[in-house]
Specification:
The protein has 363 residues and is α/β, with parallel strands linked by helices. It has 10 helices and 15 strands. The chain folds into 2 domains: 158 residues, Rossmann fold (3-Layer(aba) Sandwich); 121 residues, Dihydrodipicolinate Reductase, domain 2, CATH 3.30.360. It is globular. The termini are far apart.
Length: 363
């Protein structure tokens, strides 16, 4: 017998809210029962498109005792303020990645858990793709031997479409351009597949003709605690691609999706590639593997529902979300220092000290 679904609200009613609402509708474990945006126009459109009733203010949502948590799809710089309001109402928080627009704000969101007895889930969904999970299983079985190198790319054409009216145009709102908006997905994937990442070095450039403030090309090298190395590339002026390749002493695995399926992940397995190349075999002897069915957005929302029900964090925790942001900030510092390697622990420690000082001053 299926337990009653966890009832959830959603805040911020743009395109992504509709993607997640469709994902929730495919689940028996979570149900979005109320929605809020400051824009009356967006509230009306969302209600017409999804059938989910909307409320005119956030207070109305948070005062509903049936609502156990809230999904935040507001702009990054609003994550902390909205998460704080939700947490004060003793509701659990789900926020899209990145956890916040800055690492310090992300750490403050994490602190809400202890302060208010709630959980925070961060939407690093890419690690939940069927192909990524299959790679992790192969690594754990030792099928690839000792993994020494991981490379990944996440690119699209976003920089060709930017205008001063879009938030991604500005450095302070989208630091590093694709570095903070796309590469962060792959930083989390490499963390999931390869373990602790200790250092980042990066280079970037600006090649889009539109004239935005942000860089639009990004390459970051990563060093892991066990000495393996990795690379994440992100181009903002090309057709969409999401690909991961893991190299081990006994073989390599390559996974790539059709980027057009990103918004419909339950169909992703039909248009993805996963192959293993063993030993000294060449590309011609690669073995095509079946990509298992998965639905990363439904699965992350079900993890959130489980956290709401149990009060326990999932692998998509606030700490995990902040680690991905820390890699972004280490890469940004490396750019400022002409590509010099930056230790992730140093970036985290400095941000933690600043947050502790600020919260102490407030108290």
């Amino acid at each position: 017998m299926t337990a009653n679904p966890v009832k959830i609200g959603i805040v911020g009613l743009g395109r992504w809210a509709k993607v997640l609402t469709r994902a929730a509708a495919r689940s028996e474990k979570i149900k979005i029962v109320t929605a809020f945006s400051r824009s009356e126009e967006k509230r009306t459109a969302f209600e017409q498109d999804t059938g989910v009733p909307t409320v005119p203010d956030l207070k109305a949502m948070l005062s509903n005792c049936e609502v156990e948590g809230a999904i935040l799809t507001v702009p990054n710089e609003q994550h902390l303020a909205v998460a704080a309001e939700v947490a004060k109402a003793r509701k659990h928080v789900y926020t899209e990645k990145p956890i916040a627009s800055t690492l310090e704000e992300g750490l403050e969101i994490a602190a809400l858990e202890k302060k208010y007895g709630i959980t925070v889930t961060v939407g690093h969904s890419a690690r939940l793709m069927g192909g990524i999970r299959k790679i992790r299983e192969a690594i754990d079985r030792g099928e690839l031997g000792r993994v020494a190198f991981i490379e990944a790319n996440f690119s699209n054409e976003r920089a060709l479409e930017l205008t001063p009216k879009t938030w991604r145009w500005y450095k302070h709102r989208a630091p590093g351009g694709p570095l903070s908006q796309l590469a962060i997905h792959q930083f989390d994937v490499l963390h999931y597949l390869g373990g602790e990442i200790v250092e980042a070095s990066s280079m970037a450039s600006k090649l889009s003709p539109v004239g935005a403030e942000v860089d639009d090309q990004s390459m970051t090298l990563l060093k892991f605690a066990d000495a393996k190395v990795g690379y994440v590339g992100s181009c903002w002026t090309s057709p969409g691609v999401f690909a991961v390749r893991v190299f081990g002493s006994k073989g390599l695995l390559h996974y790539e999706i059709d980027f057009e399926t990103w918004d419909t992940p339950d169909q992703l397995h039909k248009r993805s590639t996963l192959y293993i190349q063993r030993g000294k075999d060449g590309y011609a002897k690669r073995e095509e593997l079946k990509v298992p069915e998965s639905d990363m957005f439904r699965e992350e929302l079900e993890m959130f529902a489980e956290s709401c029900r149990t009060g326990k964090s999932s692998e998509l925790s606030a700490d995990n979300g902040n680690f991905a942001v820390a890699i972004v900030y280490a890469a940004l510092r490396s750019l400022e220092n002409h590509g010099r390697g930056t230790h992730i622990a140093d970036v985290l420690k400095e941000a933690q000290e600043h947050v502790a000082e600020r919260l102490h001053d407030v108290a």
